[in-house]
Write a structure and sequence with these properties.
Blueprint lengths: L8 H7 L8 H8 L3 H15 L4 E11 L17 H4 L9 H14 L3 E6 L9 H13 L3 E5 L5 H9 L4 E3 L6 H4 L8 H13 L3 E3 L2 E3 L5 H12 L7 E6 L16 H14 L4 E4 L8 H9 L4 E4 L11 H11 L2 E2 L1
Parallel strand pairs: 1-2, 1-9, 1-10, 2-3, 3-4, 4-5, 6-7, 7-8, 8-9
Helix pairs in contact: 2-10, 3-11, 5-6, 7-9, 10-11, 11-12
The protein binds S-adenosylmethionine, 6-(5-methyl-2-OXO-imidazolidin-4-yl)-hexanoic acid and iron/sulfur cluster (SF4).
Length: about 325
């Protein structure tokens, strides 16, 4: 790692301990700081644990799209909103097609391949196919990540045995605001899945969405939940809502971009070691806004022209920005 010469990594890591006892007032105090102070603090913490000039690239694929029984108000894939969104549901993709796409992701420069399915939870009968995908992705020399909805203990252990590196399951927002967005599964059920993933020895990828119409207090609550887990998630995706026509949130007021940067900065300060991912929403962000996110401690992005069902910037556009900033992919 190319650590800055002014800071000795050994000494500074003990000065930035990993805490799991954050209270809401402390987190709100961070959010309420002058912007420059907050971003400076986040970048200082960032440099203790990360190379500030490297950004990790994760590429997504939707291995099973739409027709989902859940009612997440932001999501294009819920069967409840299919008349409005017009999204075509698909069956689980064949392993070979997934691996062809993974090869392209690897050739394009991604280091992690994230496979998402629009399920409440996987059916045991689908797991053989899922395991073959994990094994194939690993053989290509990519890190593997899955997001398949809720998992029980047994399913998490099967995925671990297949070699899965990361499992993504977001808390999405604060416990208080959660019921405004999703009614078909509880916050506690999400935390239970994270428990099963962690206990099985799979790295946890968990974050959420901002711009759902929540308050700053809710963004603080979401980060409080994540930071106070028994271990900080190894990856923390922070998504800016992609307002999809036909979903209940299509007309929600846009979040001020500076508030998005603040959310990244606070995530970085609370979870110093985690990969904080600048996730959905980059397609409508300026280069300057994305750069502020990197300055505030984002260490990873979703890469590739498609997220799950919505567009993402083209690879060459991202690489031009990396060149301008002197960033290199990790
Ligand atoms: N169905 C699985 C689940 O919900 O656990 C996995 C896939 S789901 C699409 C993964 C995450 O993507 C959601 O938890 C949410 O945080 C994020 N997401 C989904 N739709 C989004 C949107 N329109 N804008 C921003 N983030 C979104
Ligand atoms: C996450 O936190 N964001 C990704 C991934 N985990 C699965 C998904 C973003 C989806 C954005 C909307 C879409 O493309 O459907
Ligand atoms: Fe289904 Fe996941 Fe979309 Fe919720 S976020 S509706 S669980 S695909």
């Amino acid at each position: 790692m190319n650590a800055p010469t002014t800071i000795s990594t050994q000494d500074t890591q003990s000065a930035v301990p990993l805490r799991h006892d954050w209270n809401r007032a402390e987190i709100m105090e961070l959010f309420n700081k002058p912007f420059m102070d907050l971003v400076f603090e986040a970048q200082s913490v960032h440099r203790v644990y990360h190379d500030p000039n490297k950004v990790q690239l994760s590429q997504l694929i939707s291995i099973k799209t739409g027709g989902c029984a859940e009612d997440c108000g932001y999501c294009s894939q819920s069967a409840k909103y299919k008349e409005g969104t017009g999204l075509q549901a698909t069956k689980l993709m064949e392993v070979e097609r997934v691996l062809e796409d993974a090869k392209r992701a690897k050739a394009g420069g991604a280091s992690r391949y994230c496979m998402g399915a629009a399920w409440t939870s996987p059916k045991d009968r689908d797991l053989d196919q899922i395991e073959a995908m994990i094994k194939g992705v690993k053989e290509l020399g990519l890190e593997s990540c899955m997001t398949l909805g809720m998992l029980n203990k047994c399913q998490a252990e099967r995925l671990k045995d297949a070699g899965l590196d990361y499992y993504n399951h977001n808390v999405d927002t604060s416990e208080e605001f959660y019921g405004e967005i999703i009614t078909t599964r509880t916050y506690q059920e999400r935390l239970d899945t994270l428990d099963h993933v962690r206990s099985a020895g799979i790295n946890v990828c968990s974050g959420g969405i901002v711009g759902l119409g929540e308050k700053r207090e809710d963004r603080a609550g979401m980060l409080q939940t994540l930071a106070n887990l028994p271990e900080h998630p190894q990856s923390v995706p922070i998504n800016m809502l992609v307002a999809v026509p036909g979903t209940p949130l299509e007309n929600v007021d846009k979040l001020d971009p500076f508030e998005f940067v603040r959310t990244i900065a606070v995530a970085r300060i609370l979870m110093p070691q985690a990969e904080v991912r600048l996730s959905a929403g980059r397609q409508s962000m300026s280069e300057e806004l994305q750069s502020l996110c990197f300055l505030a401690g984002a260490s990873s992005i979703f890469y590739g022209e498609q997220l799950l069902t919505t567009p993402n910037p083209e690879n060459n556009k991202d690489m031009k920005l990396f060149d301008k900033l002197g960033l290199t992919p990790a």
